[in-house]
Amino acid sequence: MTWYAIDAVDDAIDATRRFLFPFSLVRWVKLAVIVLFIGGGSASNASNVPSAGGEFTLPDGFPADGPAAPNGAALPGDPFAVPEFLLAIVAGIVVLAVLLSIVSTVLEFVFYDALRTNDVLLWDPFKRRFLQGIRLILFQIGVSVLVFAPVALAGYGLYVADPAVPSRLAVFVLAGLVLLGVFLLWLLVLTFTDDFVVPIMVLEDETVLGAWSRFWPTLSGEWVQFLVYLVVYFLLALGIGIGQSIVTLVLAGIVVALGAIAGLVIVGLMGGLAVAVESAVGLALLGLLVLFVILALAVVILPIRILVVTYLTTYQLAVLGGANRTFMLLPDSVLPDPDAIDDGGDRGGNRGEADSPA
């Protein structure tokens, strides 16, 4: 029996090499723009935005709005009142988070399009895939609400229940186990949506639900293969993540150290830090140095991130194509061995026969 998740490890290496090389500066710059947004997922998390309903108290001595008391002191204000500037900041953060989330999601489709066509474009596929990205975001929100709203209501019911009930602790333990199971189910749905359903949406111009209906027979029929995929992907991501962190820290440390040395040289030539800071020329030179260091860090880090994101994505696509040949999104130009997957969706038939002794 062939394990798609294991065979795809080597296939993804070959597909990554064929997709990224020979090196093209324009192609890599476009890929850098894409992975800058999709590399770490959503750029902001709306759940971390401060609540506008929280308590806000003014500092001592700060005059409160409203009429003054007869003795000249300000009357107590509403403890839940929030200044308009703080509301504006919160609204700005929310809007920015939503926009970045939309851009990140749509660029995920753009990246799949680039892998599908072996041609990296930005604006045209962004416009074409925009509505699909919005549908994906709405689907993710809907699944999250559908899964966690009943859990939240049940948790609230347990919270307000009579604490004298002897079985309350057992109920809490059982509720915790159910919550864990619900969380794992939610995580699986969103993971398979991102890894396999979105490529089908790109390949067949489907909606989220339409792509899920197309993918479900493959998932239910090959569920053991996809279980192996989860294990292999976790190990790959863990190993690659550790290696990426080490290489990034080393290279970033070299860049920062060289920048620090250059800064010391500038300060020394200017006659000291105080003189450099007070001088327009010194500030300009130090500012240019900081900008150069930031650009150098981007030049060092982004290519590594491009390699990692491309490999992990082509690995997912190789597994999907191995499970069902009709879902193979990678073109023949980047596939290491297109004939290794037969028309019936079974992988490795020819390869297995070639590897077996005569």
Automatic annotation (TrEMBL):
Composition skew (Basic and acidic residues), residue ranges: 344-358
Coiled coil spans: none
Source taxon at top rank: Archaea
Chain segments annotated as transmembrane: 25-43, 85-115, 136-157, 169-189, 223-242, 249-277, 283-308
Pfam family, one: DUF7544
InterPro entries cross-referenced by the UniProt entry: DUF7544
Positions of region (Disordered): 339-358
Keywords attached to this entry: Membrane, Transmembrane, Transmembrane helix
Listed name of the protein: Uncharacterized protein
Upper taxonomic lineage: Archaea, Methanobacteriati, Methanobacteriota, Stenosarchaea group, Halobacteria
